[in-house]
Amino acid sequence: LELAEGKNMAKMLNPSFGKKLAAISLCTFVYSLFVVATFGSLLVPIYALITPNVGMPVYVLTALIVLYAGTVATSRTELKLHGKWHWFAKHAPNLTFMRDFLEFEIAELPLKLKQAEKKEGAQFIFTIGPHGVDSLFRVLIEGLLDEAFPTMHGRIYTLAASVLFYLPLVRELTLWTGCVDARRSVAEKVLRTGNSVLVIPGGEAEQIRTLLGEEALYLRDRKGFIRLALKFGVPVVPSYCFGVVDTYRVSRVLYGPRQALVKALGVCIPIAFGLWGSTGCPLPAKHTVVFGEPLSWTCKVQGEPTREEIDRAHAEYMVAVESLFDKHKAAMG
Length: 333
Hints:
Layout: E1 2-4, H1 17-50, H2 56-75, H3 86-91, H4 93-101, E2 105-106, H5 111-118, E3 125-127, H6 136-141, H7 145-148, E4 156-160, H8 170-176, E5 179-181, H9 184-192, E6 196-199, H10 203-208, E7 215-216, H11 224-232, E8 236-242, E9 249-250, H12 255-265, E10 272-273, E11 288-291, H13 307-332
Parallel strand pairs: 2-11, 3-6, 3-8, 4-5, 4-6
Antiparallel strand pairs: 1-7, 8-11, 9-10
Helix pairs in contact: 1-2, 1-4
């Protein structure tokens, strides 16, 4: 769904040199931790096995890594609904700094959504996009949901790629900011227990297609959330995050092989450059999330939507997303 091409829809910010330096230092530090934790957890045990007399510190570290891996394998917290840590999502210094750096905010909700959210037992399937290079907005929005959705914020879970839960520290960041595994069985469990889900429908297919300044969503073949909405009778709430595609200059180097990797394994390796040419710190573009009104559908046989019913609802959803974008685009520049 092409919405706007070659134009920065979001306001480009101009933070001070000191703030830019702090942002790039923070991002470099955090991403370095992720890399060290991931590769260290693999290499340290191998080193301990093949090297004689490595010393007590290496053995202790290996034991801790094995204990961590065992805990991850047995707990499978990403398949359950108790990984949220509200204080972290709202008050962790790295997250509050990035929200300030990007002037991240949720726009005023439409009246119908406000009223629906207040009803006892209210449930929604929130959709948001575009995915962008790193979907940083997904991590940042969790700390603001209590203000936008005071009644139900603790019952909103985000569907995240399974691979994230196998990376040390990335796993914790993902869990603490309200994510669960994106597999269908988990999404159905969330809805069956009276909770709501937030999903980025475009996923890795949308991520690999990201280009600077091009507002576009990959929705053509993304109908799983519509099927869930019809099956469980839960309204879909479209939303859009302005600023996402204005944060990185994206390279098309090896685009074909990288796209093939997405199709084969569902893994995206973006090549993108942000602030001062870095690969992990976004350009300072203001981020604003806008929500639309709830969309409700029914199916002829309860809990068993047909292909025609799914296609019809999906087409209506596409129109609603485009209308939401058009309604707010003038105010975002």
